[in-house]
C-alpha cells in the first residue's frame, strides 16, 4: 500500500477559514473508506490517505474537486506519496517503527 499526504487549499474564498471545506473532503474520504478503497487520517495540517496507487489517485481527484463543486474558482493541492514496494507499508506500521526506536 502507498500513503499520500495531501493538503487542499481553496484560493480566493471570502474567509480565511477552510474548516467547512475540510469537513466536506473528509465526507468524500469516508465514503471511499466505506467502499473499502482507502483508509485515511485527518491531521491538523493535512490528510493522510492509504491505499493502492490507483485508489489513491481516484481519492485525490475526488477531493480536489470538492471546493470547485462549492463554487471556488481556484484550488491548489499539495501531494506527497510514499510508495514502498519492498515490504508492506501502512500508516500505523510507520508509526510503530519509529516507536520501537524510542
Automatic annotation (TrEMBL):
<comment type="similarity">
    <text>Belongs to the UPF0045 family.</text>
</comment>
<dbReference type="GO" id="GO:0005829">
    <property type="term" value="C:cytosol"/>
</dbReference>
<dbReference type="InterPro" id="IPR051614">
    <property type="entry name" value="UPF0045_domain"/>
</dbReference>
<protein>
    <recommendedName>
        <fullName>Thiamine-binding protein domain-containing protein</fullName>
    </recommendedName>
</protein>
<dbReference type="Pfam" id="PF01910">
    <property type="entry name" value="Thiamine_BP"/>
</dbReference>
<dbReference type="InterPro" id="IPR029756">
    <property type="entry name" value="MTH1187/YkoF-like"/>
</dbReference>
<feature type="domain" description="Thiamine-binding protein">
    <location>
        <begin position="4"/>
        <end position="99"/>
    </location>
</feature>
<dbReference type="InterPro" id="IPR002767">
    <property type="entry name" value="Thiamine_BP"/>
</dbReference>
Amino acid at each position: 500500500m502507498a500513503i499520500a499526504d495531501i493538503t487542499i487549499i481553496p484560493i480566493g474564498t471570502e474567509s480565511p477559514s477552510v474548516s467547512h471545506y475540510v469537513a466536506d473532503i473528509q465526507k468524500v474520504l469516508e465514503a471511499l473508506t466505506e467502499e473499502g478503497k482507502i483508509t485515511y487520517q485527518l491531521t491538523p495540517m493535512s490528510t493522510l490517505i492509504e491505499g493502492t496507487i490507483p485508489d489513491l489517485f481516484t481519492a485525490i481527484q475526488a477531493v480536489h474537486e470538492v471546493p470547485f463543486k462549492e463554487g471556488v474558482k481556484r484550488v491548489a493541492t499539495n501531494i506527497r506519496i510514499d510508495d514502498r514496494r519492498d515490504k508492506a507499508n501502512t500508516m500505523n506500521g510507520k508509526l510503530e517503527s519509529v516507536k520501537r526506536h524510542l
